[in-house]
Amino acid sequence: MLDALPSPTRSLDDLSREERAFTFAHFTCEHAWVIGNILRNALRTADCPAIIHISLPSSQTLFHSPSMPGCMPDDEAQIQRKAATVLRWGHSTFYLSCKFNGDERRFGEHYGLATDERAKYSVEGGGYPVFVKGLEGVAAAVVISGVEGEQAHMVLLKALEEYRELRNDFRSPMRSATVK
Fold first, then answer.
1. E strands within 82-137?
2. pLDDT exceeds 50 at position 180
3. CA–CA distance from 85 to each of 7, 21, 65, 96, 105 (Å)?
4. Predicted local distance difference test score (pLDDT) of residue 46
5. In the chain, at which end, N or C, are there fewer CB atoms within 10 A of the end residue's CB?
6. Where are the domains of the chain?
7. pTM of the predicted protein model
8. Per the database entry, which stretches of residues form a coiled coil (predicted)?
9. If we measure between CA atoms, which residue out of 162, 156, 149, 163 comes closest to residue 43?
10. Neighbours of 31 (CB within 10 A)
């Protein structure tokens, strides 16, 4: 099923525009929970073990769950590396992978990272930024590990598109009662 996903664009301009298109009016734990469950259900349907993680720049975890059993301990470490990359540079890890052709050494040299500091970041796809109107920088990072770079990027993209459709077509009963 994941093989049926189209290949993502490798144009940095298009990737940057795509990332900015997912700007929220606000981002809460409820948003993270819904996005996380969309991802978990999609990965379970594809019979793909992965870890889904959504966190804030303050390192507060909003959602963290395996899609199904079978994840490796390395996936946990990769989650932290991808989240740190997204939160520091404000782009998806796939964007940075395209910019440096997947070469983490070149990435580290370009940004002047010390050898030990390079181990904190990753340019493997699977990390995506969340932006909020009126907030400078990245509001949260949505990350999956256990799925390869291009596929991970497309799974994240499809989940965020599905969430946008749900958000645009759904009015909360609580919100309709309080908005006049």
1. 127-132
2. no
3. 22, 20, 20, 9, 14
4. 87
5. C
6. 9-164
7. 0.87
8. none
9. 156
10. 19
